[in-house]
Amino acid sequence: MLTLDTTTALLLGQSVYSLKADVGADDANKTFARNWDIAQGGLAKRFRLAPWHFFYNTLEFRRACSSVHRFVDDYIRHRNLERDVDGWKAPGSDSFVDQLAQESDSLTSLRYQLINILLAGRDTTACCLSWTFRLLVRHDAVMQRLREEIRSAMGDKAHPTREDIRRMPYLAMVIKESLRLFPPVPLNNRTATKSTILPRGGGTDGKAPILVRRGELVVFSQYVNSRRRNIYGPDADLFRPERWGGRDPSTSFGWAYFPFNGGARACLGQDFALMEISYTIVRMLQAIPRINLSMGEARDEAIGTERQRLTSVLSSADGCLVDVNRIGS
């Protein structure tokens, strides 16, 4: 809900305040948050059906999609956009949605662009935060070192700036390691625009070249690549942020590390997502002096043995259960 509120505030200029769903949020916002979850669950089922996605088309799914479309359309309508030779513009405004409108052919196209970015910016960030804290409460030394770095960088300041966060290298290493082990989007695919030959993947052992014909679908997995011992070493299955010390992931591990994809199709929201994740972790560790593993939860749980749920993103099937002691409590 936190990431939904943040992303809608950025994209639409106004948060849906889903965190206040039971304490004063208006009905439209509550309905949007509920229908968004239904629609996204349906999209995940369609993604797995691939060429037969049209077989999943329940009435609940269609109604949820229509409701989300109407909600975003209302936000666009309130921008009072006007069409001129350079595209759609809002008088006297230069917000993100207004800039995106200038590049859109129609208001319907703008709606789909906003939904696409909202889809990418909500659950992916939430999943990374959940997995990161799930790892931190099971690795006391990492949690302690991260708290010390935050105290050193922040001092008495309450709210970190972008520059403050850039002075926290260990925080960046923790996030990279979390994204490596639990990439929010573990599977992805691309359709070949022309026939080509990949250097490996063919033959009985997968080491021979393989032909990819134009129009064929290529599926690739960040989750699988992240656990390859020939790339990350014999401890590839362990949570060890120190492996990123002094490393640039774009040169150290090449295309074995691509939580945000890369090249011309790199995630446009990468910087925003990393900053949101970093800011949230810092503020939570500042505000909550003790975050411990809940009673009954397995501390020595081997990474990869936990229950996972794959929809459009990879999340923990059991959530992230912790005990907290807030300042003043």
Distance between the termini: 24 Å
Largest sheet: spatial strand order: 1-2
Number of strands: 10
Please state the average pLDDT score: 85
Taking pLDDT < 50 over at least 5 consecutive residues as the criterion, the unreliable ranges are none
Global Rg: 22 Å
The main sheet comes to: 2 strands, antiparallel
Output the helix-strand order.
Answer: HHHEEHHHHHEEEEHHHHEEEE
Class inferred from helices and paired strands: alpha+beta
Helical content (DSSP H or I, runs of 4+): 40-55%
Number of helices: 12
Which band does the percent of strand residues land in?
5-15%
- Quick one: overall form? globular
Describe the protein in words.
With 329 residues, the chain is of the alpha+beta class. The protein has twelve helices and ten strands. It has helices at 2-12, 27-49, 59-77, 96-102, 107-136, 140-154, 162-166, 169-181, 222-225, 229-232, 249-252, 270-287; strands at residues 82-84, 87-89, 187-191, 196-202, 208-212, 217-221, 290-293, 308-310, 314-316, 322-325. The strands form five sheets. The chain has a two-stranded antiparallel ribbon. Strands 3-6 form a two-stranded antiparallel ribbon. Helix 2 crosses helix 3 (59-77) and helix 5 crosses helix 12. The longest helix has 30 residues, at 107-136. It is globular.
What keyword list fits this structure?
329 residues, 47% helix, alpha+beta, two-stranded antiparallel ribbon, two-stranded antiparallel sheet, globular, 12 helices
